[in-house]
Amino acid sequence: MIYQNKIIITPEINNLIEKTLSEDLFLGDITTESLISTSEIGKALVIAKSAGTLAGSDIFIAILKKVNSNLTINQLVEESKQFQKKDIIFEIYGSVTSILQAERTALNFLQRISGIATITKTFCQKVHIYKAKIIDTRKTIPGLRELDKYGVKIGGGRNHRFNLGDGILIKDTHIQIMKNKGFELKDIIEKAKQNISHNMKIEIEVESLEDLKKAIVAKPDTIMLDNMSLNDMTEAVKICNGQILLEASGGVNLENVEDIAKTGVDLISIGEITHSVKIIDLSLKFEHK
Predict the structure, then answer these.
(1) Do 41 and 155 share a domain, yes or no?
(2) What CATH number is given to the structural domain containing 48?
(3) What is the pLDDT of residues 12-32, one digit of tens each?
(4) Are 94 and 68 in contact (CB under 8 A)?
(5) Into how many domains does the chain fold?
(6) 3-state secondary structure string, 86-101?
(7) 281 secondary structure, DSSP code
(8) What is the pLDDT of residues 117-126, one digit of tens each?
(9) 145 counts as catalytic
(10) Which member of 43, 138, 139, 213 is catalytic?
(11) What angle do CA 105, 56, 273 make, to 5 degrees?
(12) Which residue range is the domain that position 167 belongs to?
């Protein structure tokens, strides 16, 4: 569960922690067990190997505590804050064997979520002088959607649907099926309105200005402009005149996101921030005695 800038360790998150730890430890840690005494105490540092935005501290700490609740963890960089290369993010003191057993799983989460936050912040900075907001998609790692979307939020982006029950999004596949049954765009939107509660939002995808004009008649809450040219997006903004939210989608990257924002759209959805994220490289090193 996500609350503001925190990951609440719910039973579901706890189950995820246990499952991911078991990937490493279901047969034990034979290397550590054969070399290091369980009584050995040490201090480890988590060090940034590149700059980024920190996200995922709560689950990082929870994983370490799951392996050994007696570990002492000192967080030196606050959640959502930026850090630089070579910054020390955490100090961990306690059982050396426990730290080694938790290391990979804990870092995997921290690196991925921080990577999502970092790239999201970069996109948001590109468009910060425009009204457009960066939003995510459902193109997330199976089982990690809540954490992936948390990273987007920490980076300054906004969350689109978490699941298929969060709102109506009429995609090209729905449209094709309904058109085969004789429905026009206006009819498809009206049918959706008839089958949902009064406070449920409706969004529809269009690929041309002609379809945009047809969809407007039924007054959906949002219209997704799928892979439209910059000129067509600019024209779509003029046509809608602020009456309907417009979302740009498809092929968005750091090179073109500012140009897209300049068209005047309200939302820019980007799958890349979760499905192709580059992790933030972090390493764990023990201090020499």
Answers:
(1) no
(2) 3.90.1170.20
(3) 999 999 999 999 999 999 999
(4) yes
(5) 2
(6) CCEEEEEEEEHHHHHH
(7) P
(8) 999 999 999 9
(9) no
(10) 139
(11) 100
(12) 125-275
Pair of tokens at residue 230: 């910059």
Q: Give the type of residue at 95.
A: S
Among residues 43, 65, 104, 145, which one is catalytic? 104
- Contact status, residue 80 vs residue 18, Cβ threshold 8 Å: no
Measure Cα distances from 259 to 119, 203, 254 in Å: 18, 23, 10
Q: What is the pLDDT of residue 196?
A: 86
91 has catalytic annotation:
no
Q: What are the tokens at 238?
A: 């003029």
Do 43 and 102 lie in one domain? The reply is: yes
Query: What are 268's two structure tokens?
Result: 């820019």
Phi, psi of 208 (to 5 degrees): -150, 160
16 and 110 in a single domain? The answer is yes
User: Are 47 and 58 in the same domain?
Assistant: yes
Written as six digits, the tokens of 48 are: 């940034």
C-alpha–C-alpha distance, residues 90 and 120, integer Å: 23
pLDDT attached to residue 210: 96
Give me the catalytic one of 58, 103, 148, 205: 205
Q: Which two tokens stand for residue 287?
A: 């201090």
Catalytic residue among 58, 148, 211, 226: 226
Q: Within this chain, do residues 39 and 90 fall inside the same structural domain, yes or no? A: yes
Chain centre to alpha carbon of residue 157 = 8
End-to-end distance of the chain based on CA atoms, in angstroms?
40
Residues 249 and 140 in one domain: yes
- Please indicate whether residue 104 is annotated as part of the active site: yes
Cβ contact 268:127 at 8 Å: yes
Structure tokens at 94: 């306690």
Residues in the chain predicted with pLDDT less than 70, given as ranges, are 1-3, 289
The length of the chain is 289
pLDDT at 5: 77
Among 49, 171, 179, 219, the one annotated catalytic? 171
pLDDT at residue 289, as a whole number: 66
